[in-house]
Amino acid sequence: MKNKKAIIIGASSGIGKGISLGLLENGYKIGISARRKERLDEIKKLNPEMVIVKEYDSSTEKNDKLINLLIEKLNGVDLIIYCSGIGIINKELDYSIEKKVNNLNVLGFTQVVTHAFNYFLKKGEGHIVNISSVASEIGNGISPSYNASKAYQANYLQGLRFKAFRMKMPIFLTDVRPGFVDTDILMGNKDKLFWVAPLDKACQQIIIAIERKRKIIYITKRWKIISLLIKILPERIIRLFF
């Protein structure tokens, strides 16, 4: 049986690492990248022949070269996943912070996803997955760029789904919208938050969604309730929480 092959951008920790481990267990050959090579090497040690490692900062303007390198080393891929992202509290609305967030969450994301889409157009099929957030559906007064950048990602992926449909191309695009997941991004605030999903459970649900080629998936599923509330509650109420 031919191994499926995947690239995971932002694989050194959290959801990206969990997805990488899950795909590896499912028989995928994977190409993984992140800034912290030592953490990538820990994944490679589990199955050296099935893991390609590349140290890389996705906030640069060379993501196309990274994708090409990993595609070449894997001899083609079926799945490209963008897990790279950053969220910074910015109560003072410091532009340098907003720029840092958007460099990764908007520019880095766009370069990876457009390059992946064009690659799969030439190949004739493929699957792109992005880890966005429930935050994509609402603004945030203390971290405006994070929520706005996630909204951009969700909207952009939907646009590419429309594009693939019009072109009658079997290119699937999955928008993963987690709520709170027990990763470093919570910065030790786990006990102050609600519905915090264990990382293993979150990644299992994501991998199932990938295999089923879902369009949009909430992690965990009950976060769809929050999504519905965001849509129906008036702003004068929602703004009290964000």
Task: Give a brief outline of the structure.
The model has no long low-confidence stretch (mean pLDDT 90). The chain is α/β, with parallel strands linked by helices.
Structural notes for this entry:
The chain has one domain: Rossmann fold, CATH 3.40.50. Strand 1 (5-9), helix 1 and strand 2 form a beta-alpha-beta unit. It is globular. Helix 1 (14-25) crosses helix 6 (199-211). The chain has 242 residues and is an alpha/beta fold. A 7-stranded parallel β-sheet has the order 3-2-1-4-5-6-7, sandwiched between helices. The model has no long low-confidence stretch (mean pLDDT 90). It has helices spanning 14-25, 37-44, 63-74, 95-123, 144-166, 199-211, 223-232, 235-238; strands spanning 5-9, 29-34, 51-55, 79-82, 126-131, 171-178, 216-219.
On the 0 to 100 scale, the average pLDDT is: 90
Helix percent band: 40-55%
Number of strands: 7
Tell me, what is the CATH class?
Answer: Alpha Beta
Quaternary status: single chain
Q: What number of domains?
A: 1
β-strand amount: 15-25%
Distance between the termini: 49 Å
Give the arrangement of secondary structure elements.
Elements: E1 5-9, H1 14-25, E2 29-34, H2 37-44, E3 51-55, H3 63-74, E4 79-82, H4 95-123, E5 126-131, H5 144-166, E6 171-178, H6 199-211, E7 216-219, H7 223-232, H8 235-238
Parallel strand pairs: 1-2, 1-4, 2-3, 4-5, 5-6, 6-7
